[in-house]
Automatic annotation (TrEMBL):
<dbReference type="Pfam" id="PF01546">
    <property type="entry name" value="Peptidase_M20"/>
</dbReference>
<keyword id="KW-0378">Hydrolase</keyword>
<dbReference type="InterPro" id="IPR036264">
    <property type="entry name" value="Bact_exopeptidase_dim_dom"/>
</dbReference>
<protein>
    <recommendedName>
        <fullName>Probable succinyl-diaminopimelate desuccinylase</fullName>
        <ecNumber>3.5.1.18</ecNumber>
    </recommendedName>
</protein>
<feature type="domain" description="Peptidase M20 dimerisation">
    <location>
        <begin position="203"/>
        <end position="309"/>
    </location>
</feature>
<keyword id="KW-0479">Metal-binding</keyword>
<dbReference type="InterPro" id="IPR010182">
    <property type="entry name" value="ArgE/DapE"/>
</dbReference>
<dbReference type="Pfam" id="PF07687">
    <property type="entry name" value="M20_dimer"/>
</dbReference>
<comment type="similarity">
    <text>Belongs to the peptidase M20A family.</text>
</comment>
<dbReference type="InterPro" id="IPR002933">
    <property type="entry name" value="Peptidase_M20"/>
</dbReference>
<dbReference type="InterPro" id="IPR050072">
    <property type="entry name" value="Peptidase_M20A"/>
</dbReference>
<keyword id="KW-0862">Zinc</keyword>
<comment type="pathway">
    <text>Amino-acid biosynthesis; L-lysine biosynthesis via DAP pathway; LL-2,6-diaminopimelate from (S)-tetrahydrodipicolinate (succinylase route): step 3/3.</text>
</comment>
<keyword id="KW-0170">Cobalt</keyword>
<dbReference type="InterPro" id="IPR001261">
    <property type="entry name" value="ArgE/DapE_CS"/>
</dbReference>
<dbReference type="InterPro" id="IPR011650">
    <property type="entry name" value="Peptidase_M20_dimer"/>
</dbReference>
Length: 413
């Protein structure tokens, strides 16, 4: 056997020997509820601080200042955990990022296994967060531990960034640690699925559009101006914009095209009154080939045409900035992708599709901080994420941990 093969066998063996430890670690994370809202981070951050210190990491708990959490209207403290497995300081540093919060479990009666039990059945571990994202966090941590238990010399660091509030946007989680200089590295693997690699994520543009009318009795309709009927023209215009955008597809598999979704509509007060106002909220998922401003300007132009053709048409357009995000992309020839593909190949014998998704994740905070990132981890979208009976396939967890161990070795050793 050549040297690389020996090393590979050493890594596989380390992970195989850790099988009960990996499963047990995920069960314990599931057993510490961290539902968001409200976001309970005290117990899980203390657990990680103790466990990861014992496992050989240098651990920092980064608490977000109270004035920031209260300014954001949040009732509980926000704590991020950064754990570093030190190398000699001469290599590349690899970050793994997963969030600590989960969506609420919902009605426990609807679960076949209690949501905070971590029960094992059918080769699966059940519970809220089993995949999203405690399963990922377990695989990332255990991959670093497996590497540490071999005799291989590490030149670079492996950094685990376990962060808050991904389920509510992440500004005080991955956003906070990136914007305040708490995390440094050459590349980041962020929570994702084991059946593909995500290298691009859509931007988010959200608009509020209001049409004004004049109220009147339905029996004297000519005295009023119907704001709902005016809005119908806007809706038609947005449908046409969607058709145009479908003709400008993304070159990245999985991303299709920029989507236009009219998510809410409100107008009128009573069936026999001519409505004085109508309001819609529109969500655009913007492919990397478009910018938010380009899409915004296309909406402005369509409203201008409507105004020009109808002197009675009165409209107001505002940007909702809460979730506004530019599209993010990591280049197809990034070493991060080729090295992950190589690790996948070494473990499974094949490679994975590289795609984009019309969603967002914490990856953007790292990319905005100059750190290239992709999404990859154990589990798939089949695992009842955000639903009842969320689970993690044990074999997927172990195999993905092996892949991540090989990746970490290839990057930091
Ligand atoms: Zn998640």
């Amino acid at each position: 056997m050549n040297d690389t093969n020996t090393q590979k066998q050493q890594l596989f063996q380390a992970v195989e020997e850790m099988r009960p430890e990996i499963i047990g670690f995920l069960q314990r994370l599931i057993q510490i509820p961290s539902e968001n809202p409200p976001g309970n981070y005290s117990e899980i951050s203390t657990f990680l601080q103790e466990e990861l210190t014992d496992l050989g990491f240098e651990v920092q708990v980064i608490s977000v200042p109270d004035e920031m959490t209260s300014a954001a209207g949040l009732p509980t403290p926000r704590k991020n955990v950064i754990a570093t497995l030190r190398g000699s300081g001469e290599g590349r540093n690899l970050i793994f990022n997963s969030h600590l919060d989960t969506v609420p479990a919902g009605d426990p009666e609807q679960w076949d296994y209690p949501p905070f039990s971590g029960m094992i059945a059918n080769g699966r571990i059940y519970g809220r967060g089993a995949t999203d994202s405690k399963g990922r966090l377990s695989a990332y941590i255990m991959a670093a531990v497996a590497l540490a238990r071999t005799s291989l010399t590490r030149n670079g660091d492996v950094i685990i960034a376990a962060t808050c509030d991904e389920e509510t946007g992440g500004i005080l989680g991955a956003g906070y640690i990136n914007q305040n200089g708490h995390v440094h590295g050459d590349m980041v693997i962020v929570e994702g699925y084991s059946n593909h690699i995500v290298r691009a994520m859509a931007g988010v543009l959200q608009l509020k559009i209001t049409t004004d009318g004049i109220p009147a009795h339905a029996g004297y309709k000519w005295k009023g101006l119907n704001a709902v009927e005016k809005m119908a023209k806007v809706v038609q215009g947005l449908e046409n914009l969607q058709k145009d955008l479908e003709q400008e597809p993304s070159s990245i598999p999985g991303m299709k095209y920029t989507t236009v979704n009219i998510g809410t509509i409100q107008g009128g007060t009573k069936v026999n009154v001519v409505p004085a106002t109508c309001e819609i909220e529109v969500d655009f998922r913007v492919i990397p080939e478009h910018s938010l401003d380009q899409i915004y300007n296309r909406v402005v132009s369509l409203l201008e045409v409507l105004e020009k053709n109808d002197p009675a048409f009165k409209v107001k357009l505002t940007r909702i900035t809460d979730f506004q995000t530019d599209p993010t992309i990591t280049q197809e020839d990034s070493p991060l992708i080729s090295e992950l593909q190589q690790a996948v190949q070494e473990v499974t014998g094949h490679t994975l599709p590289v795609v984009g998704v019309l969603a967002q994740a914490d990856t953007r905070w790292f990319i905005q901080n100059g750190i290239p990132g992709i999404n990859y981890g154990p589990g798939t979208s089949e695992n009842n994420i955000h639903g009842f009976n969320e689970y993690m396939e044990i074999e997927d967890l172990i195999q993905t941990t092996k892949i991540l161990t090989v990746l970490a070795k290839n990057i930091v050793c």
